[in-house]
Amino acid sequence: MDDVAGCIACDLTSGRVELPGGLIHRTTHWRVEHCVGPLGVGTLIVKPARHVIHVADLTDSEADDLGPLLRRTSSIVTQLAPSSQVYVCLWSHGPAHIHFVVQPVSEELMSRVGAHGPALQSAMFDSEPGPDPVAVADFADAARDKFEHA
Ligand SMILES: [Zn+2]
Q: Is 2 a member of any domain?
């Protein structure tokens, strides 16, 4: 199964659900998009192009591409978003397929939310609004440019 309707990751890939900011980058096996959840402008998603629900189910080729792409995505987020750390994590649980979250976390964000680590993300889902679509589009443009030219 490469595309599963009702999986938000597949729905965004297929265009059944509009992707704010559009596709930022893709490799043979992976896609980079802006996060649609309330984790702040600059939080990117790295996800397989096909429907994969367990990291253990990645092919050798998909796994080989993953490390370099996570590093590159983290580097670009670091360049574009002020932060004291860039979280890279995977909490996905079905029905959505796996997607790594690459999130810039600044001192200001930790202070505003009053948490760090998983508690910061949980608090943001509880209290933060979704990211501003214009700011998301601007960040996606800047990230796309970095992927293309860096
Ligand atoms: Zn999927």
A: no
Residues 6 or more apart in contact with residue 68 via CB below 8 angstroms: none
Paired with 105 in beta bridges are 85
> Ligand 1 is a single-atom ion; what residues have CB below 5 A from it?
4, 7, 9-10, 51, 97
> What's the total number of domains in the chain?
1
Query: Which residue type is seen at 24?
Result: I
CATH number at residue 48: 3.30.428.10
Cα 110 to averaged position of ligand 1 atoms, centre (Å):
31
pLDDT tens-digit map of 24-67: 999 999 999 999 999 999 999 999 999 999 999 999 999 999 99
Distance 8 CA to ligand 1 centre (A): 7
Give distance in angstroms: CA of 5 to centre of ligand 1. 8
Q: Can you give the pTM of this predicted structure?
A: 0.96
